[in-house]
Amino acid sequence: MSIQRKELGDFLSALRQKCEPAAFGFPPGLRRRTHGLRREEAAQLAQISPTWYTWIEQGREISVSSDVLDRLATALRMDKTQRAYLFELAGRRDTQPAASTHAIETPLLQRIVDDFAQPAYILDRYWDVLAWNPAAATLFGDWLHADATPNLLRFVFADPAARALVEDWETRARRLVAEFRADSRSALDDPELQARVDQLAQASPEFARHWKQHDVLERQGGVRGFNHPAQGRLALQQVTFRLVDHDQLKLVLLLGADA
């Protein structure tokens, strides 16, 4: 039995025993020999066979599909962290990750970026720019204000100003598409994402070509060069962070290269 399988079984067993039967529609009863739900009840809630559920808890080397994991997470009312842990232990990708339990307000996002003197901005899952500070506005120019919802990819591929501003535009543009594809790997069947990709492909032959190449790269730091119309050449160190409980959001900082 592998450690991962044992941990998966122990995790489900511990969580099941913390579930109050009455809260799940089962009478508490006086003859219960275990705390929480019985294995048969957990299996019933998840719509899988009791034998199959027992094998999972016993850590047997069986193939547990993402669909079964999704049903177990829903049946046992797992929160976001528990669900992610379940899929990680099972070695499966969660195709329907749990949504954040609370929304993050735009004023708070704005406060986050305003605390930085260097250019800072926040991207969502579609790379819309949700908030940016004055230093970012100075660096990138009018495009942040020209659209009700500015988008980094739309700027790079559809705005002629980006080709002049971004040093070695062709290389950076190709990397951005590969980073965006990797960033979107769990949502490639999202209709909104597909619509965004189609719009970009229609607006930019370069984006369409790079997207079809299926290159994937994690969003990496490093020096980014800019040819600013007023400040001349700038070399800035890019650092990207994901926000806790909002991993679909990315905080991007552009620091002085000697920072």
Automatic annotation (TrEMBL):
Pfam families given in the database record: HTH_31, MLTR_LBD
SMART domains per UniProt: HTH_XRE
Entry GO MF terms: DNA binding
Organism in which the protein naturally occurs: Andreprevotia lacus DSM 23236
Name of this protein: Helix-turn-helix domain-containing protein
SUPFAM superfamilies xrefs: lambda repressor-like DNA-binding domains (SSF47413)
Residues annotated as domain HTH cro/C1-type: 11-83
UniProt xrefs under InterPro entries: Cro/C1-type_HTH, Lambda_DNA-bd_dom_sf, MLTR_LBD
Domain of life of the source: Bacteria
